[in-house]
Amino acid sequence: MKSELLVNAGFPLVENGKLLKSFLKERTVIPVFGKKDVMVEDRFGDDLVLIEGQYLEDPEKIPFRTDANYIALCIDGSYKQKVGLHTFTLTRGTVQLVKAGMPLMFWDVSHDFKCYCICFRSSFLSNLTLSTAAVDQLLELNPSEAPVLQLDESAYEEMLIHFSQVNEVYNDGEKSHGREILQLRILEMIYHIKSMMPPVAHVQTSHTSRYSQLIFDFRALVEEHFADRMPLSEYARLLHVTPKYLSHITRKELGDTAINLLHKRIIQEAEYLLYYTGYTVKEMADMLHFDSPTHFSRFFRLKTGKTPVEYRKLKHFQV
Question: What is the rounded CA–CA span in Å between residue 152 and residue 132?
Answer without folding.
Answer: 32
